[in-house]
Design a protein that fits this description.
Layout: H1 28-34, H2 39-46, H3 49-57, E1 61-66, H4 85-94, E2 96-98, E3 111-114, E4 131-137, E5 140-144, E6 150-160, E7 163-168, H5 178-182, H6 191-199, H7 201-206, E8 211-216, H8 218-228, H9 235-241, E9 245-246, E10 259-262, E11 268-272, E12 280-281, E13 284-293, E14 296-301
Parallel strand pairs: 1-7, 8-14
Antiparallel strand pairs: 1-2, 3-4, 4-5, 5-6, 6-7, 8-9, 10-11, 11-12, 12-13, 13-14
Length: 305
């Protein structure tokens, strides 16, 4: 069950007014212990010595933590999914973003931020640390981690000595493999990725470090298949699909600045649009971008290039 492999956490944003006499908590854990609406996260941290140490010592970070109400139906930390200690530790490292990002710094131009998640089970990129995205969308400050799950900051800018805490309103997730990501919420199963899997190319990509994959929408995939239906061998189609893979290289949205990048097929594509808010690949619109995976990033295109 996918839930056993992912765990969801949230964070919130809103200006906080401190009384003049209020002391800033000495560390992140002390601040969390003061919050009556993040008791689940706090309990998960305190039961794990590694996480306890991290949240007591970490500096120059922004933490995005889930409020209790986000865990509908999941209250007992000794039952699934909270009893999966490895997954819990990973996500509670993942929600610690390196650097200070008050809500005022989160704008419509996305920021791609390194996190404290370095576990090789979830990180197979040269950067060595998994990445999160901060961006303002539809007037709301948001954070996105694995599976393209986005949460709104509902209360933010809570200060501790060495950092900032934001609370969010909906679940976040660890990153998964490309194959797992393609069939997990909130993605509808993507035909192109499913077919890549059946040809074996996706299995190879899942084991490769630093991958950027461009998939295409289901209607566009059907048109591509129809155009290739008379080919004597589906091997030709697999070769065409290599045009949608860049490796080595992880190209998040902020890399789409007009640069030309060579694909696995040997041809090049132009990544553009970061500055105007509409990412494109050779002029084709990205309709769902920055889907973070264990070994890179996935972008869904409106049609084939």
């Amino acid at each position: 069950m996918m839930l056993s492999k992912t765990l969801f956490f949230t964070c919130a944003v809103a200006p906080l007014s401190y009384a003049a006499v209020a002391a800033v908590p000495p560390n992140a854990l002390a601040l969390l212990e003061q919050q009556k609406d993040v008791t689940i996260i706090t309990s998960l941290i305190k039961r794990d010595p590694v996480l306890t140490k991290l949240y007591k010592e970490v500096k120059d970070v922004t933490i995005t933590t889930a409020v209790d109400s986000a865990f509908i139906g999941f209250k007992d930390i000794n039952t699934p999914p909270f009893n999966d200690l490895g997954t819990v530790r990973a996500i509670l490292q993942y929600i610690v973003l390196e650097g200070l990002y008050p809500t005022s710094s989160i704008t419509t131009k996305a920021k791609y931020v390194s996190t404290k998640l370095t576990n090789s089970s979830y990180v197979n990129i040269s950067r060595g640390k998994q990445v999160g995205r901060l961006v303002e969308e539809n007037g709301k400050k948001t954070v996105t981690l694995g599976l393209d799950l986005t949460s709104n900051i509902i209360q933010g800018n809570l200060k501790f000595n060495g950092g900032i805490l934001h609370k969010i309103d909906t679940p976040l997730s660890n990153p998964l493999s490309i194959k797992e990501t393609a069939v997990a919420a909130p993605l509808v199963e993507n035909y192109a990725i499913s077919n890549l899997s059946s040809f074996g190319l996706l299995d190879r990509l899942d084991k490769t470090k630093d991958v950027t994959l461009f998939s295409i929408s289901n209607p566009a995939w059907e048109k591509l298949i129809n155009s290739k239906i008379t080919l004597p061998s589906l091997k030709s189609l697999v070769e065409d699909l290599k045009y949608y893979v860049i490796t080595p290289g992880v190209y998040y949205g902020d890399s789409f600045t007009g640069r030309s990048v060579q694909t696995l097929s040997g041809d090049s594509v132009t990544l553009a649009g970061y500055n105007n808010g509409q990412l494109t690949v050779n002029g084709v619109k990205v309709v769902q971008g920055d889907i973070i995976t264990i070994n890179g990033v996935l972008h869904i295109l409106e049609r084939y290039v």
